């Protein structure tokens, strides 16, 4: 390069692991380009970074060759948990990797693949099977490669499973015993980023396949208890068992919501992975010269929890509840208005409106309420729908004040009761970002 710095390409650069790798490589003096398909998410995660906005799953080999040209190392931190919500596991984990491998053929570029502990061609979930096939394409190539397979990643930021872990730990007074037989090993996000840097700089031999993990495992409830202690919350007073059928039901609902764009960590793939245990063997990594990964207690001690961590943990589960509440409220409001047009129109006709104008106003309002109540259930439209609810509620208040100011003094408080819904919509709009 013109400035003499080595160049790194980080695929999936705004994800939990990708963003950490991007930052670590940059501070180590590399010239780093992050790659991802969402320009807004990229700017939020690393506003000063160099970004190439690409849909990795849709790129052809020519685009891949142009993208990787001149890179000294390519770090593949892209991935998805489950099909749905715009994600295609076969395209992301397998076909994109095959095209990447072909684009790198004949080059001296090192490929660092971030996979997952437990991948296998005959694994019970598509996530692990597709990851294994992508890893297999790399291992069968003549490239200079290193494959790293982290267990459950814990960092200052939280996404997916690590976010759900915090939310479960923050339940007030309750510690549900979910999958008590499942054994979990973790790895610090900083340790993963350091491992990637070591692999990128050649400190790890080519051809290494290694799990990144702490040495010891603990049960899932013990892991949740450790996070609860880290958050500074008192011990739970009640630890009820969670029947497997309830967990399967939650996973089925989460899978259904995935079709609406919601990437819930409660989807069946995550539940199955937890049930099977998140385990790894650190021996291959340490034999390759890698530094031992710290245990969970040290990981948590290195990132003291503050008010923002407790807020996040509590709001993580309240957010979907708030979305559901708004959806039910606005759908019900719309249906009731449309079903009882005459009664609703009477509020206006009794104040001088013509019957036709009153009925048109009721129908427009009912259809708008129903549309917003349905729109907020689709993940890409959550923020727009929430802001639309706030704007429409504000419009109702202004219109009612002009047309029927006496309603403010109504003992049933029909206008006063609009205000909490308006505020809740603004809160939801403020919480919609997932990265």
Largest sheet properties = 7 strands, parallel
Terminal Cα span? 31 Å
Portion of residues in helices?
40-55%
Decide which structural class fits the backbone: alpha/beta
Task: Find the count of extended strands (DSSP E, 2+ residues).
Answer: 11
What CATH architecture of the largest domain do you see?
3-Layer(aba) Sandwich
Q: Which blocks of ≥5 consecutive residues have pLDDT under 50? A: none
What is the N-to-C order of secondary-structure elements (H for helix, E for strand)? Answer: EHEHEHEHEHEEHEEHEEHHHHHHHHHH
Rg on CA atoms, Å: 26 Å
CATH class of the largest domain: Alpha Beta
Overall 3D shape:
elongated
GO molecular function: protein-containing complex binding
Organism: Wenxinia marina DSM 24838
Protein name: Putative nucleoside-diphosphate-sugar epimerase
Domain NAD(P)-binding: 12-154
Characteristics:
single chain; 435 residues; alpha/beta; Rossmann fold; seven-stranded parallel β-sheet; two-stranded parallel ribbon; 17 helices; elongated; Putative nucleoside-diphosphate-sugar epimerase; NAD(P)-bd_dom_sf; DoxX-like
Description:
The chain is an alpha/beta fold and 435 residues long. The chain folds into two domains: 7-305, Rossmann fold, CATH 3.40.50.720; 320-430, no CATH class. Helices cover 51% and strands 11% of the residues. The chain has helices spanning 16-27, 39-45, 61-68, 89-104, 126-139, 161-169, 189-200, 220-230, 244-258, 268-276, 283-287, 296-301, 307-339, 341-349, 355-375, 382-403, 418-430; strands at 7-11, 31-36, 50-53, 73-76, 110-114, 144-150, 152-154, 183-184, 186-188, 208-212, 218-219. Strands 3-2-1-4-5-6-10 form a seven-stranded parallel beta sheet, sandwiched between helices. Strands 7-9 form a two-stranded parallel ribbon. Strand 1 (7-11), helix 1 and strand 2 form a beta-alpha-beta unit. The radius of gyration is 26 Å and the shape is elongated. The two termini are 31 Å apart.
